[in-house]
Amino acid sequence: MGIQNVAVYLGSADITDPKFRQAVIDLANYLADHDMTLVFGGSSCGMMKLLADTMLAHNGKVIGVFTKSLPEKFIRHDLTESVITGNLAERKAEMLRRADAVVALPGSIGTFDELFDALAQKKLGAIRCPIGVLNVDGFFDPLFELLKKSMDVGFTSERAFSMLKSGRTPGELLEDMNKTVNGKGE
């Protein structure tokens, strides 16, 4: 059946660097062109806004999962569906519940928290969906170096290390992840 719902983690900061903005646009275009539903944090700010705007401009389906613990003025009201959770932990759980795949774009602490939460959930067997990063301009290279060091020392297993996919383009990443969903990977 393949990937239909993609949870995307990314920052809400308004980044002006064109390579990061283009990566967000490219991901949204890929999702919309492949009739995939975007599941994201539901914010009307920064890179999250750009992602949702691009999806909606291409008649894509967009589900925002927002939390009451953030200021209501940041919630996006023009989405296909909006879900309000009580706190950030519930938001992460709801996004994962709806996801066939998880993609992280460059971001900050919240993005890293969501990504590592998804990886921990997968390691424990609570979720099965593939998890990957869109490695724009080598942004996630230091993360892979850290995970490799953790594996070399013995903290991280090779299996856990291999759970995190990486791609430089949305097509490269999601096509690799789709193999996992279809039983050809992992």
What keyword list fits this structure?
186 residues, alpha/beta, seven-stranded parallel β-sheet, 7 strands, 17% strand, globular
What features would you describe in this structure?
The chain is of the alpha/beta class and 186 residues long. It has 7 helices and 7 strands. It has helices at residues 18-33, 46-57, 88-98, 109-123, 141-153, 158-162, 170-181, and strands at residues 5-9, 37-40, 62-67, 81-85, 101-104, 131-134, 164-167. A 7-stranded parallel sheet has the order 4-3-2-1-5-6-7, sandwiched between helices. Strand 1 (5-9), helix 1 and strand 2 (37-40) form a beta-alpha-beta unit. The chain is globular, with a radius of gyration of 16 Å. It starts with a strand and ends in a 5-residue tail after the last helix. The mean pLDDT is 93.
What is the helix fraction of residues, given as a range? Answer: 40-55%
Head-to-tail CA distance between termini = 17 Å
The count of β-strands is 7
**Largest pleated sheet:** 7 strands, parallel
Low-confidence stretches: none
The sequence of SSEs as H and E is: EHEHEEHEHEHHEH
Tally of separate helices:
7
User: What's the average pLDDT?
Assistant: 93
Which value, in Å, is the CA radius of gyration? 16 Å
Question: Structural class, judged by helices and strands?
Answer: alpha/beta
Question: How big a fraction of the residues is strand?
Answer: 15-25%
> Numbering strands along the chain, what is their spatial order in the largest sheet?
4-3-2-1-5-6-7
* Shape type: globular
